[in-house]
Amino acid sequence: MTIKIGMVGTGGFSQKHADILMKMDQVRLVAVCGTSEEKAKRFAEQYDGMRGYSDFHAMLDAEKLDGVYLCVPPMAHGEMELTLVKHRIPFFVEKPLGVTTAAPEKVVEALEKAPLVTAVGYHFRYLESIQYLKRLLKDHTVGLVTGRWMGSMPEVSWWRNQALSGGQLNEQATHIVDLLRYLLGESEEVHAYEAQRVMNKRKEDVTVADVGTLSIRFKSGVIANITNTCILPEGLDEIGFTMYTDSAVIEWTPESLTIKTGKTEKVMVDTQDPYYQEDEAFIQSIKSGSNEHILSTYQNAYNTQLMTDAARVSVEKHSPINLND
Ligand SMILES: NC(=O)c1ccc[n+]([C@@H]2O[C@H](COP(=O)([O-])OP(=O)(O)OC[C@H]3O[C@@H](n4cnc5c(N)ncnc54)[C@H](O)[C@@H]3O)[C@@H](O)[C@H]2O)c1
Predict the structure, then answer these.
(1) Is the CB of 34 under 6 A from ligand 1?
(2) Ligand 1 in contact with 171 (CB < 6 A)?
(3) Which of the 8 DSSP states describes residue 219?
(4) Longest C-alpha distance within the chain, in Å?
């Protein structure tokens, strides 16, 4: 069975997924849709048999697609997902689901009425270290978590515009929010602070905050804090989280997991490519017609979007936000 894939977006992450997919037997990249025909054709030329389009509907009308990848910035989400639900075409969405919950909420409603195979690019869930940690935490009582996404500001112009990207928590630290949800369950309250300290003085069009901190109270009673900044010079990135439990300090980064008990220190280094794993899970799920291989479905990722959006509201209202309200 050959799975025919269409992509939307001609940027870095369409390229990332396309390069992985072309290595898979039984997958063919047949179409790409970009913001201009020229960009789409230039992207398509890299892959044998791929055709370029500048109109999403024209692509769907002309091609018989088994699955679509949506690798577009946060503000471009919503209408395409609703169209795919209507056409019954499984889709993979790069995180985050949107700028706020407004567009994703409608997609979740549509999926409730008409379930479909969907996947969201919260790729860290597929790491061996995260799978191992998920099993390990059954025997540990986590007290407190500190998480972080510290780095520099991406160059693309949409990223520094709050209305287009939703800011760094929505765009990047969302990965840490999602991992904590995956490992610790749902939360009931968030309280966030954000500020502009540096980047808006360097570039006129910066409307996102460049430092932020989010406190979370989970339903289990665990409390956590996730801190982010995009003011650092290149090369000083710090991404990950530390869990403080009754028997160990557990440190996770995208590269490794370290478990310190005071007497022993165990280090686990990830060797598999989580992007390959998530793409393979999506292709397998298209074939089987069920979400069973997928660790982050659209509906599940929506709960992460609810949390990051509640953090945005918390910043605006200068107040904690109860997620049960
Ligand atoms: N999971 C990860 O590790 C990871 C890493 C990087 C990026 N991403 C996500 O992938 C998404 C895209 O990021 P990127 O780095 O590829 O950005 P990019 O700016 O390199 O590319 C975005 C592309 O989308 C196109 N686009 C915008 N609106 C469109 C529309 N309505 N129709 C068709 N094309 C449209 C742009 O022209 C551009 O080609 C972002 O949401 C980002 O957060 C995820």
Answers:
(1) yes
(2) yes
(3) T
(4) 63
* CA–CA gap between residue 100 and residue 183 (Å, rounded): 23
Q: Name the DSSP class of 143.
A: E
Provide the 3-class DSSP secondary structure of residue 105. helix
Confidence at residue 211, expressed as pLDDT on a 0 to 100 scale? 98
Inform me whether the pLDDT recorded for 139 exceeds 90.
no
In the chain, count H helices and then E strands.
Answer: 12, 15
What percent of the chain has pLDDT above 70?
Answer: 100
- CA 119, CA 95: separation in Å to the nearest integer? 10
Structural domains of the chain, with CATH: 3-123+275-297 (3.40.50.720), 124-271+306-322 (3.30.360.10)
Compute the residue count for the chain: 325
Angle, to 10 degrees, between the axis of helix 298-317 and the axis of helix 174-184?
Answer: 120
Question: What is d(CA 127, CA 281) in angstroms, rounded to the nearest whole number?
Answer: 13
Q: Is the CB of 156 under 6 A from ligand 1?
A: yes
CA of 6 to the centre of ligand 1 (A): 15
